[in-house]
């Protein structure tokens, strides 16, 4: 146990050297998250466009890979993957609103299925405090059905809001981590 603790503390010393950067990045993520929540429609449109460009660039990479693998029998899979990615990326770039609607439906379905899975699994396994997992699953199912019921109007803001909330929470976690690491290192140096 002492060996693990000493290895952890050695790693912490390395991380502590850059705690200011972690704090700054965390605060930047929180500001970006607040901006996304404040402009959900714009954040949704930008995220769909960025996703479209990522698919187009990955299609080009798969196409290059197909030419590299032309002597191999799997060249058809490379070409098919390049075509699917390229066409999907093109449609997302041409019709970002429709892309946001499709992504919203996909996320809503994921919430429903994932929530049901959590409810059933927690009910069957009944691990410690399994009731919280059931509540979490029920919230996910309700959110999913709510999104499915209003997917046209929700699609204009939901993705941007979800990205914004995720950035805020990630940033806050990074700020908390940076503060904890810095405080832990200060306490350790005082004790030594």
What's the arrangement of secondary structure elements?
Blueprint: H1 2-16, H2 19-38, H3 40-68, H4 75-94, H5 96-125, H6 130-149, H7 151-154, H8 158-191
Notes on the structure:
With 192 residues, this protein is mainly α. It has one domain (21-191). 90% of the residues lie in helices and 0% in strands. The protein contains eight helices and no strands. The chain has helices at residues 2-16, 19-38, 40-68, 75-94, 96-125, 130-149, 151-154, 158-191. Helix 2 (19-38) runs antiparallel to helix 8 (158-191), helix 3 packs antiparallel against helix 4 (75-94) and helix 5 runs antiparallel to helix 6 (130-149). The two termini are 20 Å apart. The mean pLDDT is 86.
In short:
The chain is mainly alpha-helical and 192 residues long.
Supply the key terms.
192 residues, mainly alpha, 8 helices, 90% helix, 0% strand
Through-space gap between termini: 20 Å
| Total domain count | 1
What string, H for helix and E for strand, traces the elements in order? Answer: HHHHHHHH
Basic shape = extended
């Amino acid at each position: 146990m002492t060996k693990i603790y000493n290895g952890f503390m050695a790693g912490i010393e390395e991380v502590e050297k850059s705690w200011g950067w972690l704090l700054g990045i965390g605060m930047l993520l929180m500001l970006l998250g607040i901006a996304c929540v404040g402009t959900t429609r714009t954040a949704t449109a930008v995220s769909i466009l960025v996703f479209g460009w990522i698919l187009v660039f990955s299609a080009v990479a798969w196409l290059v890979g197909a030419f590299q693998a032309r002597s191999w029998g799997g060249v058809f899979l490379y070409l098919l993957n390049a075509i699917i990615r390229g066409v999907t990326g093109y449609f997302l770039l041409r019709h970002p609103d429709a892309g946001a609607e499709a992504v919203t439906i996909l996320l809503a379905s994921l919430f429903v299925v994932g929530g049901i899975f959590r409810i059933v699994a927690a009910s069957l396994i009944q691990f410690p405090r399994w009731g919280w997992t059931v509540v979490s699953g029920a919230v996910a199912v309700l959110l999913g059905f709510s999104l499915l019921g209003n997917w046209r109007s929700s699609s204009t803001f939901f993705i941007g809001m979800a990205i914004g909330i995720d950035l805020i929470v990630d940033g806050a976690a990074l700020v908390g981590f940076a503060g904890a690491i810095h405080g832990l290192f200060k306490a350790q140096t005082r004790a030594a």
